[in-house]
């Protein structure tokens, strides 16, 4: 078993189910820790809470919103991150149109109109071939478990997050970048930008996959993370 523990950060409206299957496979080779990103309304607060509970040094894997927190962890305690894996996330701030959508969704939720992840929204999160499969139902159930109060905190944190693009050239730990080929939520060009800016970063594209590779293609996700963990 690896002496380097693995810390997993979830995305918006995600809980441990997001990483469940890859984590089970990776538990054979490393000590796996799941972070809770539901209790704070800033990425600084999320990162501080994660660091307070985390091992002294760890490999850090994050998806989407978790990536924003991963960048903040690198700002707060870079010496504690030995390896970095960023899936389906962005270092840049939201463009105006995306920000407007976030603010509208936040306002609706504040008014009591919180639907979680609906069937209509699923094609934005998983590949169209999986919308009506069990993974689609799991995504909707996961969002309901996380719930309204956490959604409000998470969206406020996302809206107010700092720009992490200037941080990219300073990342020197072994870095894996992954993205679903058909991700509609965080477009693959965001990952391409990080690949160009982070020295020595490796890139993996998940074919026929949307925004949630750990749920959509768990075996492939586990294999890619296993290889990343094995890098000296």
Model description:
This protein is α/β, with parallel strands linked by helices and 232 residues long. It contains eight helices and six strands; from the N terminus they run βαβαβαβααβαβαα. The chain has helices at 20-26, 43-53, 65-76, 96-110, 134-159, 188-197, 213-216, 218-230; strands spanning 6-9, 32-34, 58-63, 81-87, 175-180, 202-206. The chain has a six-stranded parallel sheet, sandwiched between helices. Helix 2 (43-53) packs across helix 3. The longest helix is centred in the middle third of the chain and has 26 residues, at 134-159. It is globular, with a radius of gyration of 16 Å. The relative contact order is 0.19. The mean pLDDT is 96.
Keywords:
232 residues
Question: Layout of SSEs?
Answer:
Elements: E1 6-9, H1 20-26, E2 32-34, H2 43-53, E3 58-63, H3 65-76, E4 81-87, H4 96-110, H5 134-159, E5 175-180, H6 188-197, E6 202-206, H7 213-216, H8 218-230
Parallel strand pairs: 1-2, 1-3, 3-4, 4-5, 5-6
Helix pairs in contact: 1-8, 2-3, 4-5
Oligomer: single chain
Strand residue content: 5-15%
Give the termini distance in whole angstroms. 14 Å
Low-confidence stretches: none
Largest sheet: 6 strands, parallel
Helix content: 40-55%
